[in-house]
TrEMBL record:
Listed PANTHER family: DNA-DEPENDENT METALLOPROTEASE WSS1 HOMOLOG 2 (PTHR47795:SF1), UBIQUITIN AND WLM DOMAIN-CONTAINING METALLOPROTEASE SPCC1442.07C (PTHR47795)
Protein name, as recorded: WLM domain-containing protein
PROSITE patterns: UBIQUITIN_2, WLM
Residues of the WLM domain: 120-287
Pfam families named among the record's database cross-references: ubiquitin, WLM
SMART domains linked: UBQ
Entry GO MF terms: proteasome binding
CDD domains: Ubl_ubiquitin_like (cd17039)
Taxonomic placement: Eukaryota, Fungi, Dikarya, Basidiomycota, Agaricomycotina
Residues of the Ubiquitin-like domain: 1-73
Length: 287
């Protein structure tokens, strides 16, 4: 006797009639015809899903019952082409930077700013996240938007963005299935920063502190493309600045007095290096 499945994908519902002995592969082929999401990139979410499914498992073995509601997550073939274009652009940019580094006799250093401008209305309006976007096709977009807003308004993050002249067009999330080996992505040196907010199983969100470390990493890519010594130096500096800012707030000593600067203690230096450059302690992989 056929079973009816209600599959939703990005707000559109699809009603399918299949036999209990049909395989997962057959279901995925039907869904690919309806949604243009390749079978290999489809992720099905539903109540009672059996773990460790195989392509040749039947629908009944997979826990799919008559009338069950299923959510499909995955990029379409057209979107996949766009992701490949971004990857090609990244490779092209890195190749150009390698060629420039091979030819140049003097390394270009990142710009520095007069600390007296930190906290000025002009800096606050320019060096920030100009837009926040959650992915509405993923579960619980309001919770994702709340987390992105918290990151964008984080006082320590706002402080380092103004101090180092860092602006980002769009702060959004990176779905685990889109780039499974990445926790963050910086597109075109700050045009957009995408962060992995969710767990791999889409059953919750990653720890705020871990996501914020990835954000510091991606902000560094606004200035440096390659993961070279220049990148590592600035990445460590951003994390030291975050730690020092929060520690000074806790002690009630931080202010934006004109001409103020600080020298991080050796303790802070060690803490930041352990977070960012500690070999096996590196918490993320990104481009």
């Amino acid at each position: 006797m056929p079973i009816e499945l209600n599959v939703s994908h990005r707000g559109t519902s699809h009603r399918l009639s299949l036999l209990p002995n049909d395989t997962i592969t057959a279901l995925q082929a039907r869904l690919e015809e309806l949604t243009s999401v390749p079978s290999s990139l489809q992720k099905l979410l539903y109540k009672g899903k059996k773990p460790h499914l195989q392509d040749d498992d039947t629908l009944s073995q997979a826990g799919l019952r008559d009338g069950i509601k299923v959510q499909l997550i995955g990029p379409t073939a057209e979107e996949l082409g766009g992701m490949r274009a971004v990857e090609d652009e990244r490779n092209r940019r890195e190749r150009i930077m390698r060629e420039r580094a091979a030819k140049a006799s003097v390394k270009v250093r990142p710009r520095t700013r007069d600390v007296r401008s930190i906290g000025s209305p002009r800096a606050e309006s320019k060096y920030k996240f100009h837009r926040i976007e959650a992915l509405d096709h993923l579960p619980d977009p309001p919770a994702a938007r709340t987390l992105l807003t918290r990151l964008a308004n984080d006082p320590a993050i706002r402080h380092v963005m103004q101090k180092h002249s860092l602006a980002v067009g769009v702060l959004t999330e990176l779905a685990p299935h889109e780039h499974p080996n990445l926790l963050g992505l910086n597109v075109n040196a700050g045009q957009a920063i995408k962060l992995r907010l969710r767990t791999d199983r889409y059953d919750g969100f990653r720890l705020y502190g871990d996501v914020r470390k990835v954000l510091c990493h991606e902000l560094t890519h606004n200035v440096w493309g390659d993961h070279d010594d220049n990148f590592k130096e600035m990445n460590s500096r951003l994390n030291r600045d975050v730690l020092e800012f929060e520690r000074s707030l806790a002690e009630g000593t931080h202010s934006f007095t004109s001409g103020e600067a600080y020298e991080p203690s050796s303790e802070l230096e060690a803490e930041a290096n352990a977070l960012i450059m500690g070999g096996s302690h590196i918490l993320y992989v990104s481009v």
